Amino acid sequence: MTELNPELVLLALAPVFLACIGWEMWYWRRHGRDDIYSLRDVVSNATLALMHQISDAVFLLLFIVTAYQWTYDHGLKLVSSGALSILLLFLLQDFLYYWFHRASHRIRWMWASHVTHHSSERLNLSTAFRQSLTYPVSGMWLFWLPMAWVGFTPNEVILIVGLNLAYQFFVHTQAIPKLGWLEYVINTPSIHRVHHAQNPQYIDRNYAGVLSIWDRLFGTYVEEIEPCRFGITKPMPTHNPLTLTFHEWRDMFRDAWREKDLRYLWKPPEWRAGD
Ligand SMILES: [Zn+2]
Ligand SMILES: [Zn+2]
Fold it and tell me: How many whole angstroms from 186 Cα to the centroid of ligand 2?
């Protein structure tokens, strides 16, 4: 379907991301809000992004591309070329993204990676870069295997995953209000602000990637009404990228070891034995 190099497409978008962050910083400065951005927060987000990108590239080379290729070779090869298959590629990946994201909040092995993205109490465009290098260990790549199995090539899979994440950059902002009827169709800044909030009614809601319909279909949608308080219920007041990457892995293994109970690895993050 496409011979676009997925890595290059995202690299080409980098100047757009940086320009938007520059605009947002200027916007908040002009509005007298110096609480939205902090230099230390941005530096730590950027460092985490770099670590994440390197880890992604290494794991892709090590085995993920091979796994997709093997699955494609032994799969159904149902997909032909054309507009319909591009639409199917987009819909299927966004649907799988919803479940990947939901699992990332409800299975501690996956939360151990995803918590990094949620641990800041600030929310701005640079928060989109705040990612963990351990996603390949948590098994993010497993969620895209069905796409290779039905007949999408590894390049197509990697490209659409990248484009989905690229879209999500733009929903990490407090500068954009609700967007009317668009809220019914696509993931918006308002919908994603709720996802980053720790207000009790907002926790584990709004898992959308690009389309917001999955949350409405599967009962996880909630509207932004009360102002959002960003961050996680177990605060992580550090800017150290290594601590931000590994603290939940450490806590998870400590809990499992202390109580000699492996269920800590797959139960929800807040689960305790005897609950
Ligand atoms: Zn999340
Ligand atoms: Zn986010």
Answer: 14
Q: What is the pTM for the complete model shown?
A: 0.96
Q: Ligand 2 center to residue 228 CA distance, Å?
A: 13
Expressed in angstroms and rounded, the spacing between residue 6 Cα and the centre of ligand 1 is 23
Q: What is the pLDDT of residues 126-144, one digit of tens each?
A: 999 999 999 999 999 999 9
CA 189 – ligand 2 centroid, Å? 10
Domain enclosing residue 75, as ranges: 6-265
129 alpha carbon – ligand 2 mean position (Å): 9
Q: Specify the number of domains making up the chain.
A: 1
Could you tell me if residue 1 is inside a domain? no
207 Cα: distance to centroid of ligand 1 (angstroms): 6
In this structure, is residue 209 part of a structural domain? yes
> Does some domain include residue 273?
no
CA of 170 to the centre of ligand 2 (A): 10
Radius of gyration (Cα) for the chain, nearest Å?
Answer: 19
% of the chain at pLDDT higher than 70: 99
